[in-house]
Automatic annotation (TrEMBL):
Highest taxon, organism lineage: Bacteria
Keyword match Nuclease: no
Keyword line: Cytoplasm, DNA damage, DNA recombination, DNA repair, DNA-binding
Organism: Varibaculum cambriense
Oligomer status and interactors: Homotetramer. Forms an RuvA(8)-RuvB(12)-Holliday junction (HJ) complex. HJ DNA is sandwiched between 2 RuvA tetramers; dsDNA enters through RuvA and exits via RuvB. An RuvB hexamer assembles on each DNA strand where it exits the tetramer. Each RuvB hexamer is contacted by two RuvA subunits (via domain III) on 2 adjacent RuvB subunits; this complex drives branch migration. In the full resolvosome a probable DNA-RuvA(4)-RuvB(12)-RuvC(2) complex forms which resolves the HJ.
Protein name in the entry: Holliday junction branch migration complex subunit RuvA
Amino acid sequence: MITHLSGTIEEVRLDKATIDVSGVGYSFFATPATLSTLTAGQEAKILTHLVVREDAWLLFGFAGRDERDIFSTLITVSGIGPKLALAALAVFSPDELRAAVSRGDLAALTQIPGVGKKSAQRILVEIGDKLGEPSGGEADSSSGIGSAGREEVCHALEQLGWRTPLAQKAVKEAAEANPQAQVPELLRAALQLLGKHHA
């Protein structure tokens, strides 16, 4: 089992990235929140989960242990494969997913691409309390990427020189304007708002 990889990020795409570890390139699928933390040419440590099939070995990467643990639990549900589990973590942060499962919110779970009512019911029945309780109360679900993704966008704006209160305000406004925006779209929208306010 490959549990983590440490090396230099070679490439970052919309749904996956490649990391060079001692001259060997490993390609892994990841959520927008995780991919937004990676930059080509920089060193990184990625927590991983390897899925072995008859026709392929698929590697999935995560910036944090919590995301990986949720992923590992989701793929134990019958009918929920790794791509669907990754989609769930692209829509919800780990705490938002815990909150939806703990309150039996079928409507929220069916927001995950590829998850219908029956699949949502299976998630509730088969996972039960395996995900645990939300760590800090229910997170704001105004954006499709979840609170963790919004925090990553705020961090990216801070790295570009914007002060934290301004960055947080721009991300909040951008998320409210487009609740389903993913990390790249939300970052672009927030930058546009900041540019208008401070032109």
